[in-house]
């Protein structure tokens, strides 16, 4: 027999093809994504051209009318900041996050604020009962007559609820738990998620109705379901946060109506979720007197400059292998900075236990925090305390060079606004020079004498 012209099986995630079916993709290693595309190819080859009406004829782009898309505020400023000004009519927004981070609480607050403006809001819960959502709404003071609640898992019933309520906003929690009877497979499967999402998005576009979808994430942090889900929606938001802290961040990884570098800051409280418009004091300690081993840096979270305190502790070790414990910073970055401090500045910490952490549970991933980490380590090793009015921003290379960072003017402006009168940055071209400047800024005469060592 002649072999087929093209492999009949293909992965819906990455496009990997195979001559035989496999439960797991050989390229992206995802389960249940390899499907038979033979019937699809046959139907595609048989598609015939149809005549196009006068109203659908392609026109030059210069003749197409430009219409502005007006958004309406959700009532939560930090959420609107990430969306680019508010919720756009007809937009499909996907909000993902780990279990328990507060996605449902945030969207219930959005629904309540929208209902308070007079808009009818349909909140579809497919994971909880209606009474459970009612109890949470009472606790967070989110009850409103214009907020309609439906506990449904069938897509057809949800579409009927939309027809009956005729809402101005629809929230579905979550898209992985809704299923369609016209598609084989269990809820959460690739085919079911694709059908549910595409149907809801089609309704959103036809009715000019904004739809907010909650999406589950896998254990590696990616959105569960087919990658097509992220391509279909207009906005993809990630709700992040540590369960041990009350702070939450929301970021937009995709946004057709606004920027993708904005960050919204929230705080989980006993009464629900509260937005934090100015989180400048959340990541610094409140000690009265300066403490050795601490240094402030100004980190960028999207377009927002945030002061973050880095703390370091150096303890003599009796173990043959000293410990290196970090929290909130990259362990490999700290190991590199320890090597640079020893080789370029003469600070030897190879026989000591080193602990580095940030305040408030924030994670520093940008290289602009290198200088603050190095100064905190130097401060802890010399038992020297820097004043509260000093901050440090800069990237450190393996040669000990202080390199400039992005958004330097915004960081400096924010540092001055918050009262940091001394800023150690890339004007100090080398790590030794930065250490000399930092110890010269120190208030006591003993501290000023120590800068001669560098």
Describe what you observe in this structure:
By secondary structure, this protein is an alpha/beta fold. It folds into 3 domains: 1-41; 77-277, P-loop containing nucleotide triphosphate hydrolases (Rossmann fold), CATH 3.40.50; 281-453, Ribosomal Protein S5, domain 2, CATH 3.30.230.10. The protein is built from 12 helices and 20 strands. The protein has helices at 38-45, 77-83, 103-116, 130-139, 155-165, 190-207, 228-232, 331-344, 370-382, 408-417, 431-441, 445-450; strands at 9-11, 17-18, 34-36, 92-97, 121-125, 147-150, 169-173, 211-215, 235-241, 247-255, 263-269, 272-275, 294-301, 304-316, 324-327, 352-358, 390-392, 395-396, 402-403, 422-424. A 9-stranded mixed beta sheet has the order 6-5-7-8-4-9-10-11-12, sandwiched between helices. A 4-stranded mixed beta sheet has the order 13-14-16-15. A 3-stranded antiparallel beta sheet has the order 2-1-3. α8 (331-344) packs across α9. It is globular and about 75 Å long. It starts with 8 loop residues before the first strand and ends with a helix. Mean pLDDT is 87; it is low at 40-45.
Q: What is the CATH architecture descriptor of the largest domain?
A: 3-Layer(aba) Sandwich
Q: Describe the main β-sheet briefly.
A: 9 strands, mixed
Enumerate the strands of the largest sheet in spatial order, edge to edge or round the barrel.
Answer: 6-5-7-8-4-9-10-11-12
At the fold tier of CATH, the topology name of the largest domain is Rossmann fold
- Identify the CATH homologous superfamily of the largest domain: P-loop containing nucleotide triphosphate hydrolases
Beta-strand percent range: 15-25%
What is the total number of structural domains? Answer: 3
Helix content: 25-40%
Shape: globular
Give the overall pLDDT as a whole number. 87
Low-pLDDT sequence parts: 40-45
């Amino acid at each position: 027999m002649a072999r087929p012209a093209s492999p009949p099986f293909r992965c819906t995630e990455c496009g990997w093809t195979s001559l035989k079916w496999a439960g797991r993709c050989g390229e992206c290693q995802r389960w249940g994504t390899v499907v038979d595309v033979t019937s699809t190819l046959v139907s595609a080859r048989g598609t015939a051209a149809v005549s196009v009406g006068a109203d659908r004829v392609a026109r030059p782009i210069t003749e197409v009318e430009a219409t502005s898309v007006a958004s309406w505020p959700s009532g939560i400023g930090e959420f609107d900041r990430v969306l680019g000004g508010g919720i756009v009519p007809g937009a499909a927004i996907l909000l993902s996050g780990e279990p328990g981070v507060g996605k449902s609480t945030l969207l219930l607050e959005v629904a309540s604020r929208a209902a308070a403006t007079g808009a009818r809001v349909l909140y579809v819960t497919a994971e909880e009962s209606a009474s459970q959502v009612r109890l949470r709404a009472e606790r967070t003071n989110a009850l409103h007559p214009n907020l309609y609640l439906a506990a449904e898992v069938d897509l057809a019933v949800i579409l009927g609820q939309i027809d009956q309520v005729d809402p101005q906003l629809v929230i579905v929690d979550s898209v992985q738990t809704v299923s369609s009877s016209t598609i084989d497979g269990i809820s959460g499967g690739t085919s079911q998620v694709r059908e549910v999402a595409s149907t809801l998005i089609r309704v959103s576009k036809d009715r000019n109705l904004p739809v907010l979808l909650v999406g589950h994430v896998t254990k590696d942090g990616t959105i569960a379901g087919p990658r097509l889900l992220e391509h279909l929606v207009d906005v993809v938001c990630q709700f992040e946060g540590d369960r041990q802290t009350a702070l939450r961040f929301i970021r937009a990884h995709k946004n057709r109506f606004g920027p993708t570098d904005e960050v919204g800051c929230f705080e989980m409280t006993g009464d629900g979720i509260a937005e934090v418009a100015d989180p400048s004091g959340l990541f610094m300690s409140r000690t009265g007197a300066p403490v050795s081993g601490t240094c402030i840096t100004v980190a960028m979270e999207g377009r927002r400059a945030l002061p973050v305190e880095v703390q370091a502790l150096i303890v003599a070790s009796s173990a043959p292998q000293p410990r290196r414990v970090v929290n909130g910073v990259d362990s490999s970055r700290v190991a590199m900075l320890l090597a640079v401090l020893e080789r370029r500045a003469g600070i030897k910490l190879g026989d000591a236990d080193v602990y580095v952490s940030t305040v408030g549970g924030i994670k520093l991933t940008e290289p602009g925090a290198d200088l603050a980490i190095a100064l905190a380590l130097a401060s802890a090793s010399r038992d020297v305390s820097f004043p509260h009015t000093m901050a440090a921003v800069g990237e450190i290379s393996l040669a000990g060079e202080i390199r400039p960072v992005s958004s330097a003017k915004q960081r400096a402006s924010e540092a001055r606004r918050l009262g940091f009168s001394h800023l150690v940055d890339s004007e100090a071209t080398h790590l030794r020079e930065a250490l000399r400047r930092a110890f010269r800024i120190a208030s006591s005469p003993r501290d000023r004498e120590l800068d001669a060592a560098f």
